[in-house]
Design goal:
The structure holds 2 protein chains of 2 kinds.
Chain A: H1 2-22, E1 27-29, E2 37-41, E3 46-52, E4 63-71, E5 77-87, H2 88-103, E6 108-113, E7 126-129, E8 133-149, E9 154-156
Parallel strand pairs in A: 5-8
Antiparallel strand pairs in A: 1-2, 2-6, 3-4, 4-5, 6-8, 7-8, 8-9
Chain B: E1 9-12, E2 15-18, E3 29-32, E4 35-38, E5 43-45, H1 46-55, H2 78-91, H3 100-111, H4 131-137, E6 148-150, H5 160-182, H6 188-195, H7 204-221
Parallel strand pairs in B: 5-6
Antiparallel strand pairs in B: 1-4, 2-3
The chains are: A alpha+beta, B mainly alpha.
């Protein structure tokens, strides 16, 4: 009986450990280098957005902008964006490709150019992360280059082969 | 020496013109109605673009900063940028002149110096020029009628030798537009926002686009 009780606690302990392991939220930003800045995160810390560009005065009939928002350890939000206007259908294509990578992943890397450790400037824009809550932008931004996951799926903004890391594909 | 624009067009009187011999025109001549012709120096076609660049006096022109940006090939187009900035600054007597570093930072922010980035299906080439902009740049009655381009096709935009002069011309126009709207000289950032059509936007993308341009421009202008 005592042995059974001991096993019960052990099983419960292992179960809790497993749950914790599965739900581990991760954020790690590298220093900028020649390739860019890599941010390694778990999928719960990433959301993508196609934003309608208001008061637009250019050539696109349905102007949208693609962005990837990343929740950091300080609960502020960094944004990686191509910074260029896209037609809505193109933006949705980019978003679909990025969402597929996020959906299938345990760990994601977002590569962009810029400093992920620049001083925080609180922005008015807020972003909601399902598992964490709603947080403000921190004024840090990366020029989006690529996103890839631990399964080797990659989506690059400018070129389909580079800078998607070949060794992980 | 770049000639400044005084008169753009001349009227050609009705005149006989040779045409291929056909049933309709067995003599091989027809009468062409009176029409307007653009004067030399108010337009460029792709052959003239190459000639102007080849023969341009490259002494004393201002080049964009070298060895400042991390992208591969970032300095490859410096001479093109310098020549066409100088050409259009002189052509339009631009004051203050358009800074070649603005063009270089714009290209970095638009395409990362990739000649034909595939991400955006609508925009073409190193400067990400859209078909609508190309049409406007060739419209003799449109917003850049002072100086237009002729016979440039969409596929030509994949060639930086053609895309860069078009981008510089368009940016010169946007600079003037921004200055008109602001009633003062426009900053580099305001010119770029006008180029991207987001001068008055309050979107998050505007913030990000500006940030992206600012990073490249700051690197180029940092001492």
């Amino acid at each position: 009986m005592i042995c059974l009780q001991k096993n019960k606690y052990l099983i419960m302990f292992l179960f809790i450990l497993l749950l914790q392991g599965c739900a581990t939220s991760h954020y790690q930003a590298s220093k900028p280098n020649a390739l860019g800045t890599d941010i390694v995160i778990s999928p719960d810390r990433v959301i993508t957005e196609c934003e309608f560009v208001d008061h637009y005065d250019g050539d696109y009939s349905d102007p949208y902008g693609f962005m990837i928002h990343i929740l950091d350890n300080e609960n502020t939000v960094l944004t990686a964006s191509s910074g260029t206007v896209l037609e809505k259908k193109d933006c949705l294509r980019w978003q679909g490709a990025a969402d597929k990578i996020i959906r299938n992943a345990k760990i994601i890397t977002v590569r962009g150019r810029g400093d992920a450790e620049a001083p925080i400037i609180k922005k008015e824009f807020k972003y909601t992360f399902e598992k964490h809550g709603t947080y403000y932008g921190n004024g840090r931004s990366l020029n989006y280059l690529a996103i890839w996951n631990d399964k080797g799926q990659c989506f690059d903004a400018f070129n389909r082969n580079d800078p998607c890391p070949k060794q992980e594909r | 020496m770049v000639k400044k624009i005084k008169k753009k067009t001349t009227t050609v009187r009705e005149h006989p013109m040779h045409v291929p011999v056909s049933e309709k025109n067995p003599s091989g001549t027809t009468i062409r109605d009176s029409h307007v012709r653009r004067l030399k120096g108010t337009y460029l076609n792709s052959i003239e673009i190459k000639e102007v660049f080849k023969n341009y006096d490259k002494k004393n022109i201002i080049y964009p900063a070298k060895n400042k940006l991390p992208q591969p090939k970032s300095d490859k187009y410096d001479e093109l940028i310098a020549v066409w900035c100088d050409y259009f600054n002189k052509k339009f007597n631009t004051n203050p002149p358009l800074d070649p570093n603005v063009i270089k930072a714009l290209i970095a922010s638009e395409s990362d110096f990739k000649v034909d980035p595939p991400g955006n299906l609508k925009a073409i080439g190193i400067a990400q020029i859209t078909p609508e902009t190309l049409k406007a740049l060739q419209d003799p009655t449109g917003e850049v009628k002072d100086f237009i381009f002729k016979n440039i096709r969409k596929k030509d935009l994949k060639n930086p030798d053609v895309a860069i002069p078009l981008a510089v011309r368009w940016l010169s126009r946007k600079k003037r537009l921004a200055e008109g709207k602001l009633s003062r000289p426009a900053s580099a950032e305001e010119i770029i926002l006008e180029y991207k059509g987001m001068l008055k936007s309050k979107s998050k993308l505007k913030d990000n686009a500006l940030e992206k341009f600012r990073k490249e421009y700051d690197l180029l202008t940092k001492k």
